[in-house]
C-alpha cells in the first residue's frame, strides 16, 4: 500500500511540496525574533487545543477557542501591520531596484568620504545619524526633511551635524552618490528588548531598519561610539577600517544583485524575441 502511494506521486507534487515548504520557511525567517513569532506560537497552541477540546467534549472551551481563532485573524492584521508591511517590502525588493553606483571608483570614493566624516564626528563626539538608502525607497522621509541633493563630501557631512545648526538633530539620507536630504525624522522602534542605555538616535536607526533595508550609521554624542543598524539589529564599536569594510561589502553585494537582475531581464527579453 505504501509503495503504491509513493508510485502515484508525480514530479509536480514534489515541486508543489517544495514550493510550499520554502514559502513557510521564508515566512518564518521574516518573523523570527519579532513579536509576531510569539503570536504564531500562541495561534499554533490554540489550533492544537481545538480538536482536543472537541474529542474530550469540553464544549465551553471548544466554543471559546473557536471564537478566539476567528477574531484572532483580524487582530493579527491590525496589531502586526508593521511586520506585514516589512514582509511585503522584503518580497518587493531587489527585482525592481533601479538605483546603483556605476563603477567601483564611484562607490570607493563615496565610502571613503563617509568613513572619514564618521571618524571625525566620533573623535569630536558629535552625534550623527546617516542613512544609506538601498532597495526600499525613502521618499516619504526625504520629503519631510530639508532637500539638499548635494555631492557627498566628508566636510559637508561633518558640517550638517555641528551642534545647534538647523539640521544636526535629524537624519541625513544618502542615495548612491548624493546627499538627498537632512533633518529627516525616522520612525522609532517599538522593540522593548533594546538596551535601555540607547537613546532616541539609536532607537530611530533601529526603527527605520525594521521597516526598510536601509543601512543606518549612528555616532553617539555621549561616547563617540559608532554603530550600525540593519534589518532591525544594531551592532556597535566600529572603527574606520571595519566600517569601510562593511559598507564596501553592502554596496558590492547590492550592485552584484542589480547586475544579475539586469542580465536576467535581458536574457528573458532575448528569449521572447527569439520565440516570436
TrEMBL record:
Keyword Nucleotidyltransferase: yes
Keywords: ATP-binding, Cell membrane, Membrane, Nucleotide-binding, Nucleotidyltransferase, Transferase, Transmembrane, Transmembrane helix
Domain of life: Bacteria
GO MF assignments: diadenylate cyclase activity
Top EC class for this record: transferase
EC number: 2.7.7.85
Transmembrane segments: 6-27, 39-56, 62-80
Catalytic activity: 2 ATP = 3',3'-c-di-AMP + 2 diphosphate
Record InterPro entries: C-di-AMP_synthase, CdaA, CdaA_N, DisA, DNA_integrity_DisA_N_sf, DNA_integrity_scan_DisA_N
Domain DAC: start-end pairs: 81-240
Function summary: Catalyzes the condensation of 2 ATP molecules into cyclic di-AMP (c-di-AMP), a second messenger used to regulate differing processes in different bacteria.
NCBIfam families in UniProt: diadenylate cyclase CdaA
Entry similarity comment: Belongs to the adenylate cyclase family. DacA/CdaA subfamily.
Name of the molecule in the record: Diadenylate cyclase
Organism: Candidatus Clostridium helianthi
Source species taxonomy: Bacteria, Bacillati, Bacillota, Clostridia, Eubacteriales
Amino acid at each position: 500500500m505504501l509503495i503504491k502511494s509513493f508510485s502515484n506521486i508525480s514530479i509536480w507534487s514534489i515541486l508543489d511540496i517544495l514550493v510550499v515548504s520554502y514559502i513557510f520557511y521564508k515566512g518564518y525567517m521574516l518573523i523570527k525574533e519579532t513579536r509576531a513569532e510569539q503570536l504564531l506560537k500562541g495561534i499554533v497552541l490554540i489550533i492544537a487545543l481545538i480538536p482536543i477540546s472537541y474529542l474530550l467534549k469540553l464544549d465551553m472551551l471548544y466554543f471559546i477557542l473557536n471564537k478566539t481563532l476567528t477574531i484572532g485573524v483580524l487582530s493579527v492584521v491590525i496589531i502586526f501591520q508593521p511586520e506585514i508591511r516589512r514582509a511585503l517590502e522584503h518580497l518587493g525588493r531587489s527585482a525592481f531596484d533601479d538605483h546603483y553606483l556605476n563603477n567601483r571608483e564611484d562607490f570607493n570614493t563615496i565610502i571613503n568620504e563617509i568613513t572619514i566624516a564618521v571618524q571625525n564626528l566620533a573623535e569630536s563626539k558629535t552625534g550623527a545619524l546617516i542613512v544609506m538608502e538601498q532597495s526600499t525607497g525613502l521618499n516619504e522621509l526625504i520629503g519631510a526633511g530639508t532637500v539638499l541633493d548635494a555631492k557627498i563630501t566628508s566636510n559637508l557631512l561633518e558640517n550638517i551635524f555641528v551642534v545647534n545648526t538647523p539640521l544636526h538633530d535629524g537624519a541625513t539620507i544618502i542615495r548612491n552618490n548624493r546627499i538627498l536630504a537632512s533633518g529627516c525624522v525616522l520612525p522609532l522602534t517599538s522593540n522593548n528588548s533594546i538596551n535601555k542605555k540607547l537613546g532616541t538616535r539609536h532607537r530611530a536607526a533601529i526603527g527605520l531598519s525594521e521597516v526598510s533595508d536601509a543601512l543606518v550609521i549612528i555616532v553617539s554624542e555621549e561616547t563617540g561610539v559608532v554603530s550600525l543598524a540593519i534589518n532591525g539589529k544594531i551592532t556597535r564599536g566600529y572603527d574606520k577600517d571595519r566600517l569601510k569594510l562593511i559598507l564596501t561589502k553592502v554596496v558590492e553585494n547590492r550592485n552584484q544583485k542589480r547586475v544579475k537582475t539586469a542580465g536576467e531581464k535581458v536574457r528573458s527579453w532575448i528569449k521572447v524575441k527569439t520565440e516570436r
